[in-house]
Amino acid sequence: MTVNSISVIVANEPRSYREVMAATVSRLRPGIHVYAVEPDHLDTEVARLRPHMVVCSRLTEALKEHALSWILLYPDGEDTATTNIAGVQTEMRGIGMSELFTAIDQTTVLACAS
């Protein structure tokens, strides 16, 4: 596995945030496979794509079981986020693109080490 060969599903609400995040990750990390999916299709896409990371607005058992890392954005409409990188969970108020890229980079390192 090369450093850039991870996959990320972006399935958060609202749709405009999802599309901007997916486009930004694709542009700034061109080797990463990024998939913007509707939140209602998250479990199906996790099973099909087996992503290393998922960015979402609600957690599902399928993504917890199959993704190496995940980021839960704005649960219950609050300005909070929870990151889970290989089982290490961190909660924060707000999240910016720099924190998103830090999580992606950490996931890349972990995926390449396994």
What is this structure, in a nutshell?
It is built from 4 helices and 6 strands; from the N terminus they run E-H-E-H-E-H-E-E-E-H.
Describe the structure.
The chain is of the alpha/beta class and 114 residues long. It has a single domain (7-113), classed as Rossmann fold, CATH 3.40.50. Helix content is 39%, strand content 26%. It has four helices and six strands; from the N terminus they run βαβαβαβββα. The chain has a six-stranded mixed β-sheet, sandwiched between helices. The radius of gyration is 13 Å and the shape is globular. The mean pLDDT is 92.
Number of E-state strands: 6
Contiguous low-pLDDT stretches (5 residues minimum) are none
| CATH fold call | Rossmann fold
CATH architectural designation: 3-Layer(aba) Sandwich
Mean pLDDT, nearest integer? 92
Note the gap between the termini: 9 Å
Shape: globular
Structural class: alpha/beta
> What is the total domain count?
1
What composes the largest sheet? 6 strands, mixed
Strand content is: 25-35%
The CATH class is identified as Alpha Beta
Q: Please estimate the helix content.
A: 25-40%
Rg result: 13 Å
Number of helices: 4
SSE sequence, one letter per element: EHEHEHEEEH
Q: Largest sheet, order of strands side by side?
A: 2-1-3-4-5-6
